[in-house]
Write a structure and sequence with these properties.
The chain has eight helices and no strands. The mean pLDDT is 94. With 125 residues, the protein is mainly alpha-helical.
């Protein structure tokens, strides 16, 4: 059975009250499959769950599947959450930095954030 056919079942399990580390392991299944149709779900999960272990897994799923048209959603997640996993999402901006004015503007803004500026500063080295 193809893994992609099981994704709806795994998604349903992410709404069950498992420990966040278990949910994180389930979420990582989506990073290794065709999870593009589930991106909105993972944007919501990142926004609504504030445990670092789960948000880190969700951020990894997001960066694996976003495209340039998803930049506004990624920027919104970085701006409106205080999670340490935001630094993972910065990788999307780095990827599209030369292709997108929106990414360039966001990096300029985020370089003023004391926490995010450390990660952005590493890019230039």
């Amino acid at each position: 059975m193809k893994l992609d056919r099981l994704l709806p079942i795994f998604k349903r399990h992410l709404s069950l009250p498992y420990h966040d580390r278990i949910k994180g392991m389930i979420a990582m299944i989506f990073a290794n499959s065709d999870a593009r149709p589930y991106l909105d779900f993972f944007f919501s999960e990142f926004r609504n769950n504030n445990t670092t272990s789960y948000q880190t897994a969700v951020a990894n799923v997001i960066i694996k599947h976003v495209g340039i048209k998803d930049l506004p959603s990624v920027i919104d997640l970085i701006e409106n959450t205080k999670s340490d996993a935001r630094t993972i999402l910065l990788g999307v901006l780095k990827k599209y930095l030369k292709k997108s004015k929106l990414a360039q503007e966001a990096v300029r803004r985020f370089s003023l954030d004391p926490y995010l500026s450390i990660e952005i500063g590493r890019w230039r080295k």
